[in-house]
Amino acid sequence: MNTALLVIDMQNSFLHPDGENYYDDAPSIVANVSRLIGRARSGGALIVHVADRHREGFGDFEDKRLPRHCVSGGFHAEYFEGFGPGEGGNEIEIVKRRFSAFFATELALFLREQSVDRVVICGVKTNVCVRATAQDAFAHGFEVAVVADATNSNRPHLADASLEDIGRYLGRVVTSEEALEMLA
């Protein structure tokens, strides 16, 4: 099975203590996400680094529900130290303006062109961007695996409910150890 790793929103906004959307538990996934990226790199799996970015000075529908965040060119929109596309040739960046990495981006088309059938999803936040991406991956016909110990949220009860839904309706919820095997 051809597998891609989708790394969701590993940006200063969420992970840096000075980030505008920082929460205390966010950094707890850094080590596991790093391990997944390392395995994907060594195993030759495609890595998609997804960044949430919004344009300065332009209206954005998300502003109706969320405070302005991850403004392009600013500190909060940058990848957290150690994250983002590496020097290797098997990594790309997808910039999104909504929760799902698939919505209004070229992600599904790109993955199909690379003959990907399965996506392993990690990053922040479980109940928002990770879940939306998992749902759209399923809708696009990809086998979905969400790495429970490489994603989290500032609302743990919603993260737990999201993982339950993902496991029941959209794909598999796996540990980082299981995901490392998928990426080998």
Structural class by SSE content: alpha/beta
User: What is the CA-CA span between the terminal residues?
Assistant: 11 Å
Radius of gyration: 15 Å
Beta content: 15-25%
In DSSP terms (H or I, runs of 4 or more residues), the helix count works out at 6
Find the count of extended strands (DSSP E, 2+ residues): 6
Look at the structure and give the mean pLDDT: 96
| Low confidence ranges | none
Walk me through this protein's architecture.
The chain has 184 residues and is of the alpha/beta class. Strand 4, helix 4 (126-139) and strand 5 form a beta-alpha-beta unit. The chain has helices spanning 12-15, 30-43, 107-113, 126-139, 156-170, 176-183; strands at 3-8, 46-52, 91-96, 118-124, 143-152, 172-174. It has a six-stranded parallel beta sheet, sandwiched between helices. The protein has one domain (3-183): 3-Layer(aba) Sandwich (Rossmann fold), CATH 3.40.50. The model has no long low-confidence stretch (mean pLDDT 96).
